[in-house]
Amino acid sequence: MNRFLSIAIFHRPLFLIPFMMVNMMAAQDTLTTVVAKKGDGILSLLRKQGVDPYDHYDDFIAMNVDNLRDSVHLYAGRKYLIPTPGAEAVEVVGELEDASKEVKKVEGTEYAIFGKKHSLVVNKSNRLNNTVYYLVSGHGGPDPGAMANYGGKMIAEDEYAYDITLRLAKELISHGAMVYIIIRDENDGIRDERVLEIDRDEVAYPNKIIPLNQLNRLKQRVDIVNNLYKEHKGKYQRLIVTHVDSRSIGQNIDVFFYHHEKSKNGRKLSESIHTTFQKKYEKFQPNRVYSGTFEDRSSLYMVKKTHPAMTFIEIGNIRNKKDQRRILDPDNRQALAKWISEGVLLDYEK
Asked: Which one of 18, 73, 341, 344 is least enclosed by Cβ atoms within 10 Å?
C-alpha cells in the first residue's frame, strides 16, 4: 500500500449478547459529573475522564447544552455531565453481566500522518465504502497564507486549515472512505494547542516541493488531483478545499462554501454541508442565526481547473477576534471537521 494513501482498514467488534435499551437522560443520576477547571475544553475534559472525545463530543454537548457558552465552551467552576461509553445504550441484567465483559476490543488502523496521539483510526461505519476524497488545505510550504498577531505570537492560515483538514480526513476514513491528503506535513499531525507553531516544511502529495510562485503552486495541486482522478476513473470522487479567510480585521464571517456554476454535484456537496451547518446552529446555538452561504465561484483557479466535483470552504477570518476563537480552539476545529464530515455523508447518501 502506498504510504501516502489513507485507506480505512478495520475489524468491527462482535456484539452477541442480548441487552435492554434504557433512556440515557432518565439515568443521568448515575452519570459522572466533573467540575471544569480554567483552561479546560470539551476535548481535554473528556480525555481526562478516559472518554474518547471524538466519539462522544456530540453526546457531551447534547447533555450539557444549557451549561455551555456559545454552546461549545465550558465555564470554569461549573459541573458537567460526562457521557459514559455504553451507558446510554445498554443495561445488562442477571446472568448476562459477566458475559458482556467479553466483548472484543475495537481495533483500528494506525496512520502516522495524524500524529502519535491521534494516529489510531477506529471504524465507525462502512457508509463511505468505495468513495475517494481529495483534501487540499490552503497555502503551505513557502506560503503561510493570511497571518495575524494573537497574544504576541504570529499565527498563520495554513496551519489551521491543515489541522482541520487532518481532522476531517480522520472522520472520513473512519466511515470507510479512501482519502488523499494533498498538502501534508509529516511532522505536525493533529494538534490540540491553540497557537499552532508556524513552519515551512509542508509538501504536496506524494512528496513534492511546493513552488514559491502562486500560480505554479495552484497548478501543481490541480495536476496532482486531476492525475489521481484519472487513476480512479469510474469511482465516486469528490474534492474538498479548506481555507481560512483573510478579510478586513473587523469582519466576522460564518463558514461558507463555493462550487463551480456548471457542477450539479459540486453544488449538491456544498449545499449538503451548508445544510448540516444550519441544523447544527439551530441545535447548539438556537439564539444565533447562521449566515454562511454556498454559491458559485467559478473564477477561483482550484474551482475552475479541477475535475472532481468539489466544494471550496472558507472557515473564518483569521484577522477577526471572534473568528479567532472559532479557529484557535481545538474543540471548535474538531467540531468543524465533524460537521463537514456529516455534510459529506449526507451528500453521498442522497
From this structure: 18
HSE-CB at 247 with a 13 A cutoff on CA atoms is 15
Pick from 4-13, 44-53, 72-81, 146-155: least confident: 4-13
Instruction: Note if the bond before 53 is cis, omega within 30 degrees.
Output: no
> Residue 26 above 50 pLDDT?
no
Is the separation of the CB atoms in 330 and 43 below 8 Å? yes
Q: Cα 57 vs. chain centroid, distance in angstroms? A: 12
Instruction: Point out the least confidently predicted range of 3-7, 76-80, 196-200.
Output: 3-7
Residue 148 Ramachandran class (φ > 0 left, ψ -120 to 50 alpha, else beta) = beta
What whole-number distance in Å separates Cα of residue 75 and Cα of residue 34? 12
Q: What's the whole-model pTM score?
A: 0.79
Could you give the dihedral angle defined by the CA atoms of residues 120, 126, 129 and 132, in that order, rounded to the nearest 10 degrees?
A: -40
Instruction: Classify the C-alpha dihedral 330-336-342-347 as positive or negative.
Output: negative
Strands 309-317 and 236-245 turn out to be parallel
- The amino acid at residue 248 is S
Residue 195 phi/psi, 5-degree rounding, is: -95, 115
